[in-house]
Amino acid sequence: MFDEDLIQKWLDEGTINNAQAEKMWADLDEYEKEHRSKEQIVAFSTIGAILIGIGAILFVASNWEKIGNNFKVLLLVGSTVGIHYAGYRLKYEQQKYPRLGSALILLSALFFGASFFLIAQIYNINANNSTLVLVWIIGVFPLIYGYMSPPIAGLCSLLFYLWIGLLYLERTDLENLISMKDLYLISGIAVYFTGTLHGLAEKAKYAEKTFKFLGLQAVLLSLFVYTFEMWEYKVEKIVPVIYAISGILLLAVLLSKPLRARPGGFQADMSISIIALLMAGITLTTIYIPASEEIYMVLFNVIFLGFLTVLLYTGYSTEDIEIVNTAMFWFILLIFARYFDFFWGLLPRSLFFMIGGLVLLVISVLLERKRRELKVQFSGGEQ
Fold it and tell me: Hey, which end of the chain has fewer CB within 10 Å, N or C?
């Protein structure tokens, strides 16, 4: 899509005349207004559908003891199927309200999980919470491809992280094999890798961005936790093997011809692979030559800062404002965390907060100004 700067460039070069430029500017303005309107409709319809779902679940819960078991199951299953069918009709059969239909389909996926948990509770099914979440994931995962739905891809990613956390808490033997930080870092790499695989297939590209975004957030969160001083860092030999396998697999996919020929976001993809391989080396070294807590803290701060720098460069070079926003957000968190680490015990409390607040305000203003400049540059004048 062309922007206002490009139209002006064509006008200055004589490629188009004034009348054509005016027409293109008008069409561009109309397109941007319509695009913003569509985004608002998606947001409102999704939030509205979720609020309706929460209200219905709360209504059933408040009258739980007064309703018979058979009626409870019928109500839960009927609500899920009914909402799903309504979303299908609106999106595909009537085709008048496709965005509202998509929101209802997402709501039915949420209802499926809630209904499953409540039915298990009704009949006292002896199952771990992680097992129920896994069944929830398996039940809604096909909807990603059946309806080409990025929101359901996001839901499945979040449920995957929930399942990993519950499984770790339930299986105490996992604590002896891997730490929670390593587990979530590997999980984030796996979700990001899933997004990369979706980018290889033309028909599955709609889910690529969602998987990559949520995988990236898990990787950043795990690395951010690593930047703090740790009490002790011990790993088993299986951990570097998992890191190495994930890094090599991602690297092999990235170096394939289809992805090499597509420059957009390649630096961020490669940085995820490098993170996995770096963690393989760090964890392997830790097993045989453990270092002090301070060395680990400095090392992970350098890795995290370098990763954010790569993301900023990627966002700028690909004109992706979402990557830029993500990098700036985590950069501010890193500065805030290190400020507390270094100055909490050195300054009086009042002076600490005053100076910290002033520093953060200045940084926020500078970063927001730069973000707005980049957004204007990427979108051709729209803020």
Answer: C
Q: What's the pLDDT band for 173 if we cut at 50, 70, 90?
A: confident
pTM for this model (two decimals) = 0.76
Apex CA 250: angle with CA 244 and CA 254, to 5°? 140
Contacts of 318 (CB under 8 A, 6+ apart): 263, 264, 265
Average pLDDT over residues 212-238: 86
Contact residues for 148 (Cβ-Cβ < 8 A; gap 6+)? 206, 207
Helices within 63-128 (DSSP H only):
69-88, 98-122
d(CA 300, CA 266) in angstroms, rounded, equals 23
Helix pair angle (180-200, 150-170), 10° resolution = 150
Cα separation, 366 vs 328, in Å, equals 11
Instruction: Give the max Cα distance, the chain.
Output: 77
Sign of CA dihedral 109, 111, 114, 120: negative
Nearest to 214 by CA among 152, 154, 142, 275: 154
**Are 189 and 272 spatial neighbours (Cβ–Cβ below 8 Å)?**
yes
- Which residue in 247, 222, 226, 233 sits closest to 283, CA to CA? 233
Locate all alpha helices (DSSP H) within the chain, ordered by sequence.
4-13, 18-62, 69-88, 98-122, 129-146, 150-170, 180-200, 208-226, 238-254, 257-260, 266-288, 293-318, 321-343, 349-379
CA dihedral (275, 278, 280, 282) positive or negative: negative
**What does the radius of gyration of the chain's CA atoms come to, in whole angstroms?**
25
User: Quick one: DSSP state of residue 91?
Assistant: I
Give residues with Cβ within 8 angstroms of 17, minimum separation 6.
Answer: 11
243-298 pLDDT, tens digit each: 999 999 988 888 876 655 565 567 788 899 999 999 999 999 988 888 787 888 88
Could you tell me which of 310, 325, 312, 296 has the C-alpha nearest to residue 225?
A: 296
